[in-house]
Design brief:
Elements (H helix, E strand, L loop, with lengths): L3 H17 L8 H8 L10 H12 L5 H9 L14 H7 L3 H12 L12 H16 L5 H12 L2 H14 L4 H11 L10 H9 L9 H15 L3 H13 L18 H12 L2
Helix pairs in contact: 1-12, 1-13, 1-14, 3-7, 3-10, 5-7, 6-7, 8-9, 9-10, 11-13, 11-14, 12-13
Length: about 280
């Protein structure tokens, strides 16, 4: 019977072993390590760029990326209606989400049907636009924002509280997207408990079958510590297996996509973990 530490270490090793067997798809150790390290992350150097990153993370939920990003032809198009992603301009210009949506529809002419019920995707995202602008307007510079985040990141217990706080500050964010936002800013102690990682971790007994996002997050942190890698590293490895998307390497598979390997990996790892 494997101890928790042994199971975590072996699960991580099996994940690497499994993905590197895809040599026919063009995946090499060098390419894989490029994704697992955080050196390629360029931290936004202005509040405007941080605001843009919040919105990029927020639209990663469920069907939002397909409905919003694709409809606009890229998230960067929002700069036209958001004052080049200036939170203070947005607050001053738009009193509610309806004004944001009206301007977006008029200036950017998104493709597809725009549903206006409050719980529909577009109204929901416009509420995120306003609440995140309100939140970021408290900071005078990117440096001040990072200094604030660093206070949480220095302590293991405080670190867990930050995504919960962001979930309360930013409408429609949620714990998992808050983690994604922090991770993509270069905070390597965060990992996103997304659908791929939740499925894999639950199937391999790395967390409870009924674990929520917060509990899965803690399990990823634990596995990373036991495997002697960063949470960012562990997150990216299992995400690559789940998504099958090597976004920096179009020569792999079909435009960087090899298809989700989640089911195959779960079967592969279960046999070797004795799950």
């Amino acid at each position: 019977m494997l101890s928790q530490k042994q199971r975590d270490r072996k699960a991580y090793a099996l994940a690497k072993e499994f993905i590197l067997k895809k040599k026919a798809e063009g995946i090499t150790n060098e390419i894989l390590e490029k994704y697992l390290q955080h050196r390629h992350i360029h931290r936004p150097d202005s509040i405007n760029k941080i605001y843009k990153q919040i919105l990029a993370s927020a639209q990663n939920a469920n069907m939002k990326a397909g409905v919003i990003g694709r409809a606009l032809g890229g998230m960067e198009k929002l700069a036209i209606v958001l004052g080049n992603f200036d939170p203070k301009v947005v607050i001053k210009k738009y009193p509610n989400w309806q004004f944001v949506l009206n301007k977006t529809e008029k200036r950017l002419k998104p493709k597809g049907k725009i549903r206006r019920k409050p719980r529909s995707i577009w109204p929901h995202f416009c509420q995120t636009i306003l609440s995140s602008a309100q939140f970021l307007s408290q900071f005078s510079s990117a440096e001040e924002f990072y200094n604030w985040v660093d206070i949480f990141d220095r302590d293991d217990y405080a670190r867990l509280a930050l995504p919960l706080l962001l979930d309360r500050e930013v409408s429609g964010f949620g714990f998992a997207l808050a983690c994604d936002f922090l991770k993509e800013l270069g905070y390597i102690n965060y990992a996103k408990p997304d659908v791929h990682l939740k499925k894999i971790f639950k199937a391999l007994g790395l967390c409870s079958p009924k674990a929520n996002d917060y509990q899965v997050f803690k399990s990823i942190i634990r596995l990373a510590k036991n495997a002697n890698v960063t949470p960012y590293n562990a997150d990216k490895l299992f995400w690559l297996i789940g998504s099958g998307y090597f976004y920096h390497d179009k020569q792999i598979g079909k435009d960087g996509r090899i298809g989700s390997q989640k089911k195959k990996f779960i079967s592969y790892a279960r046999k070797r973990l004795g799950t």
